[in-house]
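Following the same procedure, sequence and fold were stored together, as reproduced here:

>
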Amino acid sequence: MSAAAALEHLSGDPNRAALFLRGMGDLARIDPDEFPSFHFLAVSICRRFEAVMDHRDRGALDESTWEGQQNAVVGLVRMPGFRAWWAMAATLYNPNFRAFVRDAHALEQDPEWSIRVRAHMAAGASTAAVDEA
């Protein structure tokens, strides 16, 4: 299932969409009995983005398509509930995707760092090198 299909699945049920948006806005607004549903929705969507990133890394996805997907991930990362959830769930994902999410969060925080990250990523360098620059 593509990232678009995951979002279509989410939007197909108003209760599911409301739960997801409420949790992404503020994880504390999710009741304990709702958390498993929220968690599995978030895992599903992030797993799709992880797969899309893998396709890009393997050359099976062009950069213009990747740019839209990348912007969607950055949008998620900006949501406070995502950051709280990610602190619990990051280890479910491969190291490359975890680094991408970490870097996407940094893009929001420091515009100069953002410019360096984009330059290093365009050059194919590891983002770890950005921290040393």
Notes: The longest helix spans residues 35-57.
